[in-house]
């Protein structure tokens, strides 16, 4: 049986595949939204006010520095939120950050391994393939954790607040239908 037959015999309905693709896109957009807002507030925190850090000023984002940016993000997004909502959403986001930071380190290590493999005299295709497979597993872990955090935070918000957040994300990320 060739690959084309394998793909066409897939028993997952087309609507389900489209729904999963949309969900994955939404999770990625959510993650990018959090990262971009955190990054913008990180850039605003510099001493010279330019929004840029020189290479000498750049430092590794730690759980503590990310937590400070999460606080800013939550306060920005939940301007009209109650203190309890802000506290709960901040706790959810900080727990996700704590879980995701080690995965980020794993990703960076894999990147270094790819560079090392590609600069060797002989290309080790099996090792590159294993890194690719490992990175896909890592992306799946990240996606699951972000989805959990997004769903947990959404349960804290009112429907009107979720609508406002969705509109904010749409403005920040643009139309992903594309």
Summary keywords:
178 residues; 6 helices; elongated; 0% strand
Whole-number radius of gyration? 20 Å
Total E-strand runs: 0
Low-pLDDT residue spans = 2-10, 34-58
Give the helix proportion (percent range). over 70%
Structural class by SSE content: mainly alpha
Number of helices: 6
H-E order: HHHHHH
Give the tally of structural domains. Answer: 1
Portion of residues in beta strands equals: under 5%
**Average pLDDT:** 74
Summarize the biggest pleated sheet: none
Judging from the principal axes of the Cα atoms, what is the shape? elongated
Distance between the termini: 35 Å
Layout of secondary structure:
Layout: H1 3-8, H2 14-44, H3 63-77, H4 83-118, H5 125-156, H6 159-173
Summarize the structure.
Helix 2 crosses helix 3 and helix 2 (14-44) packs across helix 5. The protein has six helices and no strands.
Task: Characterise this structure.
With 178 residues, this protein is an all-alpha fold. The chain has one domain. The chain is built from six helices and no strands. The chain has helices at 3-8, 14-44, 63-77, 83-118, 125-156, 159-173. Helix 2 (14-44) crosses helix 5 (125-156). The two termini are 35 Å apart. 11% of the residues are buried.
């Amino acid at each position: 049986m060739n690959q084309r037959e394998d793909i066409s015999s897939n028993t997952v309905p087309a609507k389900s595949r489209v729904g999963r693709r949309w969900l994955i896109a939404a999770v990625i957009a959510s993650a990018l939204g959090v990262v971009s807002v955190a990054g913008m507030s990180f850039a605003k925190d510099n001493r010279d006010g330019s929004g840029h850090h020189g290479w000498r000023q750049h430092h590794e984002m730690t759980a503590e520095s990310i937590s400070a940016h999460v606080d800013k993000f939550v306060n920005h997004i939940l301007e009209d939120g109650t203190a309890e909502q802000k506290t709960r959403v901040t706790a959810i986001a900080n727990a996700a950050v704590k879980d995701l930071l080690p995965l980020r380190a794993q990703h960076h290590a894999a990147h270094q391994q790819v560079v090392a493999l590609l600069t060797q005299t002989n290309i080790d295709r099996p090792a590159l393939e294993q890194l690719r497979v490992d990175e896909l597993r890592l992306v799946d872990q990240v996606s699951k954790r972000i989805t959990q955090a997004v769903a947990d935070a959404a349960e804290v918000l009112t429907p009107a607040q979720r609508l406002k957040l969705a509109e904010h994300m749409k403005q920040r990320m643009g139309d992903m239908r594309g």
